[in-house]
Design brief:
Shape: globular
Low-confidence stretches: none
Mean pLDDT: 93
Number of strands: 15
């Protein structure tokens, strides 16, 4: 495993945004360079410890899904090679082959929501269901248990928070107020189809996708595109199918391993975050790698 890349410094382009994981550089009025670093956030705080090859694994997994699901909705990829827009000195920061961590994407107008789709009853949804029989205000049938598969996937949007702040669940009416009724209905339909097709495929690879979130944007013609990342361990809850059991929350392929360690040391979830022990960082990288290899059927070349 290569040393984690926590921050890029591409001199041949202008940095326009640094998110929890991605550094975004301007290219021209139609395209941008997205570079996925090895940063990891937990409880909406960026940790000082990077996870080896995480950015490459996220990029390659998202690219796999973009290609597999491009018949459902257009995506933000341009197909332009990232190394073609940076200087020779900067190329090393992009990675290469299936360790490439960069893509050139269309410049879209982001919709101000996160499109969350839930296929199983877990997390905050399970807590709400126990208290009210609902998930994000949507009434569900009685008698469901933790990790129960829902009769059908449900769309439960949230607001998009700035780095360091928490997303807030919003109602379908609030979603419609933000982006319009017609667009809200289209986003819900597309998000559920994306999730459903991905979940069906993932199951053949031994992985249950319990829930996921998508981000969407519009191009200059108003055409809806899925953007950012899709169906990765950072944006989804992946469970190994062989250990799935209704009534308990299965171990996941995502950063839950890190969250559990942070809970065990009773961190107050406020910056600065503590550094991760080497074994926790290594195990987390291994979990990302396992998910990547299972889903894509490819091996990471290190």
């Amino acid at each position: 495993m290569s040393a984690p890349l926590l921050k890029t410094n591409i001199q041949s382009l202008t940095l326009i945004h640094q998110g929890k994981v991605r550094d975004i550089y301007a290219i021209d009025d139609k395209t941008m360079l997205l570079v996925s670093t090895d940063r990891l956030s937990a409880f909406d705080v960026i940790l000082p410890t990077g996870i080896a090859n995480k950015g490459a694994m996220l990029t390659q997994m998202a690219n796999f899904w973009f290609e597999k699901l491009n018949h459902v909705v257009p995506n933000h990829l341009t197909g332009i090679k990232p190394e073609s827009v940076v200087s020779a000195v900067d190329k090393a920061q992009l990675g290469s082959g299936n360790l490439s961590r960069a893509v050139i994407v269309k410049k879209l107008k982001p919709l101000p929501i996160e499109a969350i789709v839930r296929g199983y009853l877990v997390g905050s949804g399970w807590k709400e269901y126990k208290a009210k029989g609902t998930v994000c205000g949507i009434q569900l049938s009685a008698g469901l248990q933790e990790a129960s598969k829902l009769p059908a996937p449900i769309f439960t949007p949230s607001s998009k928070a700035a780095v360091g702040e928490h997303d807030e669940n919003i109602s379908l009416n609030q979603c419609a107020a933000l982006i319009g009724t017609e667009m809200a209905e289209k986003v819900a339909k597309v998000a559920i189809q994306l999730y459903s097709e991905a979940a069906e495929y993932a199951l053949t690879r031994g992985i249950i996708i319990a829930d996921t979130k998508f981000e969407f944007g519009l191009d200059s013609d108003g055409v809806l595109h899925v953007m950012d990342e899709v169906l990765t361990p950072d944006s989804s809850r992946f469970w190994p199918a062989e250990s799935y059991q209704v009534g308990s929350n299965p171990p996941s392929y995502d950063k839950q391993y890190v969250r559990d360690w942070l809970e065990s040391i009773q961190w107050n979830k406020a910056p600065p975050a503590p550094a991760l022990p080497d074994d926790v960082a290594k195990r987390t990288s291994e979990k990302y790698l396992e998910a990547y290899e299972k889903l894509t059927g490819q091996q990471l070349t290190t």
